[in-house]
Amino acid sequence: METPSGPTPPVRRSLSTEAVHAGREDLAELGLHAPPLDLSTTYPSYDSRAEAARIDDFATTGARPEGPPVYARLDNPTTARFETALARLEGTESAVAFASGMAALTACLMVRNSMGLRHVVAVRPLYGCSDHLLTAGLLGNEVTWVDPAGIADAIRPDTGLVLVETPANPTLAELDLAAVAHSCGAVPLLADNTFATPVLQRPAEQGARIVLHSATKYLGGHGDVLGGVVACDEEFARKLRQVRFATGGVLHPLAGYLLLRGLSTLPVRVRAASATAAELARRLADDPRVTRVRYPKLGGAMVAFETAGDPHEVIAGVRLITPAVSLGSVDTLIQHPASISHRIVDADDRHASGVSDRLLRMSVGLEDADDLWADLDQALDRAMRDGGPVSGTAGAAGGAAGRKQGVAG
Ligand SMILES: *Cc1c(COP(=O)(O)O)cnc(C)c1O
């Protein structure tokens, strides 16, 4: 009987196959079927000379330490399985996992900032907190916001990253990644692939050097794990590991376990939810109570739409659909970006990037399409009957005024 010879299989397999096997190649040899969950924070070693050498090696190279782990902030074998699997799905050499999507983005910025490259070129809209992290200058970045066509001209000698999302949160605006990657020249393109997932789009194949995920969303897929991950070449991964070790935004091993488990059903979940989302987008587009529908050409399980009635009444009216921020779960969620996911972005910037006060963002899950439509139908009726139209879209006008500030995703 043949056993796998190492972590990298000799042939490139299809995504569905990789989703259930990547990161698990050694299990049969270990006599296991389910991956082991290692919750250790520290590891015994009677050989402190060897441990010193492993620490030196990590400090100089940032490569994953060989041999037994030293300390959980440096490396964890359960999390490493998830990293191996995600890198395989995204078609990159490596991946580095973090405590959340925002911790992952922070680490990417810190790698470049530490090289004196603090200027970022970015295309709006981005996820609200990503926009905020850049705009507020929390990490000392300076940002130039551009249209995709303006990327090349905005690049300066101190530009460290170009940052884009496609489809973007929350408008689902799409851009041509290959064209954008070309405009970046030698500056690394960071593509946030949270919405598309590697099932629909692999940005590294189109020239993005850095692919970021809020693993909290589709990769986990069940609304019970917070995590982030960066898929990239091993050179950048080494710098990310060093930043992660020094700043501590590590993924908990239980989260790593759950994310690896989530990856195994990712292709099935994304394809099934996308088919339902496409059907709901068609019905919304034909509905007179809906003034605008955004559904990506790429497909996917996210639908954004604007209502003739008050969007707050749609949120108040849903019964099967969960009125909650976040996305990518097995159940359908709906939220009002101007009130929640993008509340932290200045209202003028929000409006200029297409996030109107009427926009609702729906993450379609695995329920039956007709059941979801019945729920939307009665909530849209309520919005027309009880809410009345939102008056105006600028500044304090409209339904978002006076709502509680929120910053979640
Ligand atoms: C949610 C989200 C993030 C942030 O991820 P967290 O896991 O919530 O920190 C980043 N980018 C996009 C596109 C998101 O939707």
UniProtKB/TrEMBL annotation:
Sequence segments annotated as region (Disordered): 385-409
Keywords on record: Pyridoxal phosphate, Transferase
Keyword DNA-binding: no
Keyword Mitochondrion in annotation: no
EC code: 4.4.1.2
Any Pfam family: Cys_Met_Meta_PP
GO cellular component assignments: cytoplasm
Annotated GO MF terms: cystathionine gamma-lyase activity; homocysteine desulfhydrase activity; methionine gamma-lyase activity; pyridoxal phosphate binding; transferase activity
Cofactor(s) essential for the protein: pyridoxal 5'-phosphate
PANTHER family attached to this UniProt entry: CYSTATHIONINE GAMMA-LYASE-RELATED, TRANS-SULFURATION ENZYME FAMILY MEMBER
Family: Belongs to the trans-sulfuration enzymes family.
Protein name as it appears in the record: homocysteine desulfhydrase
Source organism of the structure: Streptomyces xinghaiensis
